[in-house]
Amino acid sequence: MARGEDRHDHSRPRPEGRLASLKAALGSTKTRAFLRLLTSVGATRTQETLRLLPFVVMALVALIDFGSGPTSGLLPLLALGPAFASVACGLARTTVSGLIALALCVALGVYNDILWTPRTNITMAAILGVTVASVLASAGRLRHERQLADVRSVAEAAQRVLLRPVPRRAGPGIGVAVSYTSATAEARIGGDLYEVVTTPHGVRIIVGDVQGKGLEAVETAAVVLGAFREAAHDEAKLQGVVARLENALSRELSGEQFVTAVLAEITDLTDLGEAQEGTSITVINCGHPPPMVLAADGSRSFADPPDEALPLGMASLKGAEAVPYQIGFEPGDQVLFYTDGVIEARDGTGRFYPLADRAHLLNGSDPQLALDALRADLLRHVGKPLNDDAAMLLLRHRAARPLASSAA
After folding, report:
1. Residue 321: pLDDT band with limits 50, 70, 90
2. What share of the chain is helix, strand, coil (3-state, %, to 5)?
3. Which Gene3D superfamilies does this one have (predicted)?
């Protein structure tokens, strides 16, 4: 593939290049631990603030009413205490806040000499009703949170089992780095997948994205990874691996479900007896964003497939078959595989993540640290939890160029 700068902007999704119907990272241990610490500290502070809010509100209402006298009419605002408590507090704290509100109402009624008047009686009845409703709402919220936590824990455990740690090296001089960032909105555990397998036919790689979210997407990802791990060893050609994946998915998928994927094979041309020497990457793209190639001279390009092919699982539509093509992979070169959760990530103004413009972040000496830097930049660009899973896999050719032999 010809080197050089990309001639069109690949930093945003290209609908014409893909079907129109078509977001816990695996970085370094220290980075993951630090991010978990920051997240837990922020969540703890927010929870503590919400838990104190009901009592702060009731104290303010009581103080203002105590100072202004019976004409202020602020007693009904004491019902805000149990109402706010139902948002973040448990059953006991919500009940206690309701009892405190009722006690304050009685005490202020006695102080202002308006106890058992119609207005005070209505206020006490309102506080009692709001407290009962708040306790019921808190019970429902806690039950929903437990169910959601169970679903997320099962899905995340399944993903950790499926997405096994990849080797840091894929042959002599080939470094590998991987990053995975899960979408955190509710239970939206996605189906992004990746794998690196060393086989007798070379090092084979898959990066893919399952349509949909949740446990169904994780189950489909398990089918794809299981079929790939087996077929990568059995099939001599990369096209055979794709055919095996299609067969496996045809027995599992239904309706309009599909999986976009890019498969790659690192090949030493010298070992194959080719006329030229060096390393090449054979790629088959099944409806997936093209890999980004970073050449040793600093240029970048996107390895677009020669022909558009349908995603995996859509063979029944009789579309064009995926055609393998070559990517040069010389010392100093890098190839980044990624899912659409990366290029479709938007900031607050709706601007897509400019992946091509941030390619310089991958120039660090350590591939994993460089990929971690790119992931951190992605999260800064979005400024909030991702809406879709984002997986990235980086290959770096670290071997030194052979020295030319001196003339005799």
Report:
1. confident
2. 45, 15, 35
3. PPM-type phosphatase domain (3.60.40.10)
